[in-house]
Amino acid sequence: LKATPPDQAASxxxxxxxxxxxxxxxxxxxxxxxxxxxxxxxxxITLTVHSALDAVGFLAAITSRLAEAGxxxxxxxxxxxxxxxxxxxxxxxxxxxxxxxxxxxxx
Length: 107
Fold this sequence. Notes:
By secondary structure, the chain is an alpha+beta fold.
C-alpha cells in the first residue's frame, strides 16, 4: 500500500471522456487555480500487490472492508496495480484498515 500525499500527486492522474463530458482527476489546488469545479476531494492509495486484470473478487474484498467502515472508494485498475481514491479526510483510516486486513491475511 502506498498513499500519495496531495501535494505530490502528478497531474492529471486520470482523464476520461464520455457523452456527458470529460472527467479529470487532478490535484484540488490545480482545479481551483484553473477555475474548475470539483467534487470528491480524495487521496490516492495504490495497492502495491500485483493483480491480474482478470482477477475475480480482489477489489471486492478490499472495497468491502472499506464499505463496512463507511468509507467510500473509487477504484481504478491499471495493468500492474489497483488504485483507490478515498475521501481525503478518511485516508489515514482507510490505510489503517487495509494494513490491518493484509496483516491478518499474512499472519
